[in-house]
């Protein structure tokens, strides 16, 4: 959590420390990704349960039941994790087109820490009147800024290819995060029903299995 603030206000110094630490997948996932995503999930779940969510299609604050919240947050949790890993993989693939011999861990590190502002502004979704697009816009703007500082320090592409790697990474990050945000926003705003989806039934089945 504190590292996210340092990435926003002191990106250069913070990225240097991240690059020097050379943390592995397990450390980054356990001590960085999980706390951020879980805290955002918990805050949003509380907001949906306590206040509901304003749905302009119906012009009222829709209350959410516990099963609805569990289904939605479970799906969103998977989407956010997948967002990091898929983006890291795409960034890695793109960097290879520039003939840079980069390790996947450096791409994963860049994506995991680079997405931090997006996960931080996800906290705002706990507000019933907050349009889901606003936290995404605020977060993605900062993601673009801190990745500009992070890619040269962590991925260390050839200087002649650095601009190409950065621009390609930004395209990947914007498109991937926008797709994830669009899917969750459609549900929160009342344009999609997850309760009758295949994945919702699978999650419900698993919940009943573990409950017994």
Structure described in brief:
The protein has 212 residues and is an all-alpha fold. The protein is built from 9 helices and 2 strands.
Q: Could you please describe the fold and organization of this structure?
A:
The protein has 212 residues and is an all-alpha fold. It has one domain. Helices cover 74% and strands 3% of the residues. The protein has a two-stranded antiparallel ribbon. α1 packs across α2 and α4 packs across α9. It is elongated, with a radius of gyration of 18 Å. 31% of the residues are buried.
Strand order of the largest sheet: 1-2
Order of helices and strands: HHHEEHHHHHH
Outline, from the CA principal axes? Answer: elongated
What percent of the residues sit in helical stretches (DSSP H or I)?
over 70%
- Gyration radius from CA atoms, angstroms: 18 Å
Number of continuous helical runs: 9
Nearest-integer average pLDDT: 87
Question: Which terms summarize this structure?
Answer:
9 helices; 212 residues; 2 strands; elongated; mainly alpha; two-stranded antiparallel sheet
Write the layout of secondary structure elements.
Blueprint: H1 2-9, H2 11-21, H3 25-50, E1 53-55, E2 60-62, H4 66-96, H5 104-114, H6 116-121, H7 133-155, H8 162-188, H9 198-211
Antiparallel strand pairs: 1-2
Helix pairs in contact: 1-2, 2-7, 3-4, 3-5, 4-5, 4-8, 4-9, 5-7, 7-8
């Amino acid at each position: 959590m504190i590292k996210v603030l340092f990435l926003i206000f002191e990106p250069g110094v913070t990225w240097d420390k991240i690059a020097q630490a050379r943390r592995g997948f397990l450390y980054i996932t356990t001590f960085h990704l999980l706390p951020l995503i879980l805290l955002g999930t918990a805050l949003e779940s509380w907001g949906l349960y306590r206040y509901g969510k304003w749905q302009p299609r119906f012009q009222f604050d829709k209350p959410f039941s516990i099963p609805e919240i569990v289904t939605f947050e479970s799906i969103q949790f998977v989407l956010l994790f997948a967002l990091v890993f898929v983006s890291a993989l795409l960034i890695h693939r793109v960097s290879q087109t520039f003939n840079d011999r980069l390790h996947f861990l450096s791409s994963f590190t860049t994506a995991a820490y680079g997405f931090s502002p997006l996960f931080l502004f996800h906290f705002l979704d706990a507000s019933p009147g907050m349009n889901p697009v606003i936290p995404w816009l605020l977060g993605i703007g900062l993601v673009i800024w801190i990745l500009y500082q992070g890619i040269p320090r962590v991925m260390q592409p050839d200087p002649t290819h650095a601009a190409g790697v950065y621009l390609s990474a930004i395209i990947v990050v914007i498109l991937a995060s926008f797709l994830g945000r669009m899917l969750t926003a459609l549900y929160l705003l009342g344009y999609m029903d997850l309760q009758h989806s295949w994945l919702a039934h699978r999650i419900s089945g698993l919940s009943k299995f573990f409950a017994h």
